Amino acid sequence: MITVEPGLYYRKIGGGVRLENLGVITKDGFVCYTKYNRRLIV
Questions:
Q1: pTM
Q2: Are the CB atoms for 2 and 23 separated by under 8 Å?
Q3: What is the domain extent for residue 24?
């Protein structure tokens, strides 16, 4: 298994978020096991 962890950080407001997707690489591509809403709400 591998994780993909893109992060967004804002120095001026002192905060950020890191999203982690857990999955596995197969011969057909990447199978993501993380099941959560990926909408960005600001």
A1: 0.44
A2: yes
A3: 2-32
Q: Please report, as a single letter, which amino acid is at residue 6.
A: P
Query: Is residue 41 a part of any domain in this protein?
Result: no
- 37 is a domain residue: no
Domain assignment present for 42: no
Domain count, the chain: 1
State the pLDDT confidence band at 2, using cuts at 50, 70 and 90: low
Place of tokens 């967004």: 8
Rounded Cα–Cα distance for residues 23 and 16 (Å): 23
**DSSP 8-class letter at 12:** T
Phi, then psi, of 33 in degrees rounded to 5 = -95, -10
Output the six-digit token pair for 29.
């591509």
Q: Which helix (H) or strand (E) holds 37?
A: none
